[in-house]
Amino acid sequence: MRQSDVLIVASGAATHNLRMFGAYPFEASPPEWVAQFDEWLTETVTHQRVDDLLGGQRTAPHAAQNHPSEEHFLPLFVAMGAGGAEAKATQLHSSFTYGVLACQLLHLHNGFRCEHTRRSLGSL
Q: Which residues contact 13 (CB under 8 A, 6 or more apart)?
């Protein structure tokens, strides 16, 4: 699909503990347990530490607190797998909502940049 001009979009939240949703104001800074996990995730993905990422539920800081279940974390593996072993990640956006919902936009690329990607990410 990489060579067929297909843009793959995977969606999920970098942190996703809805039990804590509303415990903080909308524009709250992230608590330490969210910030540490979010930083770990960014570093792990952008430095291609796939083994660390695969074991993240056991080894990442505050993993279970940030992802009580995995359904919002798993799309990352789909996107990374589609990008191939050589795919590099660039963080284009990072923000927090209610302090506990971390949102990231990661561009996974392998040197091949399809026309859809150019149109979609061209203004970033």
A: 72, 101, 102, 103
Closest to 105 measured CA to CA, from 58, 64, 45, 53: 45
8 A C-beta contact, residue 115 and residue 4: no
Q: Which structure tokens are listed for 20? A: 């804590």
Which carries the bigger pLDDT value, residue 110 or residue 115?
110
Query: Left if phi > 0, otherwise alpha if psi is -120 to 50, otherwise beta: which for 107?
Result: beta
CA distances from 84 to 53, 59, 73, 112, 124 (A): 15, 24, 18, 11, 23
What confidence tens digit (pLDDT) does each residue in 34-81 have? 999 999 999 999 998 989 988 888 899 999 999 988 887 888 888 888
| DSSP conformational letter for 28 | P
